[in-house]
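Support case: user asked for a sample of complex input and structure output to validate their parser. Sending the pair below.
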Amino acid sequence: MTAPTCYAGIDSGSWNTKAALVDGEGRLIATAVVRTGADVQGAAERAYASLLSRAGLTREAVAAVWSTGFGRHSIPIATGARTELDAHARGALQFVPGPLTVVDIGGQDAKIILVDGEGRRVGHKMNRKCAAGTGSFLEEMALRLDVPIGDLPRLASGFVEELDLGSFCTVFSGTEVLGLIRQGKRPADLARAAYRSVAKRVLEMERVEGTVVATGGVVAHHPMVVELLAAAIGAPVKVPAHAQEIGALGVAMSALAASRGPGGA
Amino acid sequence: MNASARLKELMNAHFAGVDRAARERTAPVAWCTSVGPVELLRALGYEVFFPENHGAMLGASRVANEVMGRAHALGYSPEICSYLTSDIGSYLLKKTPLQRHGLSGAPRADVLVYSTNQCREVRDWFEFYAREWNVPVVGVTSFRDIGEVETHHVDAIVRQLEALVPTLESVAGRRLDAARLEEAVGLSRTCSELWGSCLRAGASRPAPMTFFDGTIHMGPAVVLRGTREACDYYRLLDAELRERVRAGVGALPRERFRIYWDGMPVWGRLRDLAALFARLETSVVASTYCNSWIFDALDPADPLPSMARASLELFIARAEGPKERYLEARIEEFSVDGVIFHDSRTCPNNSNARFGMPQRLRKATGTPVLVIDGDLNDLRCYSDEQARTNIEGFVEQLEGAPPRATA
């Protein structure tokens, strides 16, 4: 029997549970994404099973599983945990060296993470207790526009007029959208306005400058947010491969680093 | 802490004493804001009740969120002080943690005495009860955002303190005795020095007491300032803390990091946050909040001017510049690895993260800073998950930070 040589990370998010597997050299082997739903532990198990299936490996090949995300402390198969702040920074650093600013937009929160040239986190900001600037806001807007969330990018791509949603609050923004619909505004323009709103709220959290890397499910599935962020800061925004699974990758790297002992990072 | 048993006795006796005075008319009863002119009231023989202390009890017991809605329905906005809305809601619904101390409710006042040195809300709060009970409400309308405390500030507050005296004498039915006032100011000063000594023990490594302990042990400094009992209590606590320091006993089994807390406690999550920091082996060693009951200016030889100066030198009454210099000094004094600012939704005056201070402090001192959103009492403004991720993430950041020079 050979020794286990892989390290898995599970990112238990509010919408989706993501998983990533790296080998002993930190090379990405596979990723998986499943809906979280109401069963955090079950979703973690499904994501892990899917991950192993995609990698063509069994659990015996995995030396350690670590977790991140809001459900990080509720996953029995994980033997270590790091916050999303740490995991996303570490994941982004696999693709882009520091110093950098990581903009992570997830289902229930948005984060701006500052990383120095040595790869150390030096600060962060999370959104206030409010869904504005997160995936939940886009869900609400899609509901108001009567389209599946997955169709929002296509709808927004047909925009003609730039509109602004002025409300801080997701519920009030929904009401504002209904008012604009009554005024005859086009759904495509309103979808675009929803993306503009997300980008605006995120950029109000913290100064975003230098090398900017965007991660998270919203970034992966709604590229217009990235375009709007880049336009607003006047510089390119890098989106790494596996932007949605970057936290899972980051925490898998933490598991690997821990296996090497102190200073293993 | 061994002193905790005595603390419980003292607080029980305090509540029982004010309640008895209110019910049996054995002494006049005044309500006073937490850093109001309590020494005048002591000198005139009042039993004194501090509604901000009651507000904190409502928060810590989580009764606050059950009752504050009643005050909102009266037109007191959810955006204003949740001590105020909790307390008024508690009064209207007759639900209070004071019932655990044998009281049916907050004792009725004969006079309400405020100082707006912390916020304007205290006046509105007391005026509600003045209307309810048809009793006088008097107070000091203080300066705010003070750069340097000047003589003209002090003189103006002294005149207002002097103007309180006729009403307070009339309600108490006795004249103010200069010797008794000097005695009360002297006892407040001693209490302040002893409490300050207890808090400075936190500069030791490991810290013998955390901010979370301090929020409980500060009770006598708030409600018994100007009494011998408070001084005796802090002698006891100080001796215990000195012994802990001598023996190298920390509040936590292991202290990896040291944190300074600025802003209000999240009363309804005090225990959870204490447990979280303990799990992270991170000691919150000092705070602006607990330090706010240290009054260096008090001088029994010069009662009213020194009371005025003490009320004006208070951190919360100061401008950003003096506040920043104060925090820089505390970072140095307590050798902290990071500063956490609690941005308390309904307490803007005690939230120092709204005008760029954390960012300036980080730049000036190189100390990592974190801002968490929450509230002193209204838990609807607080997210357990967000706070936990923020704090855990902050400690992870400290784990990866280069070592800091120790003081």
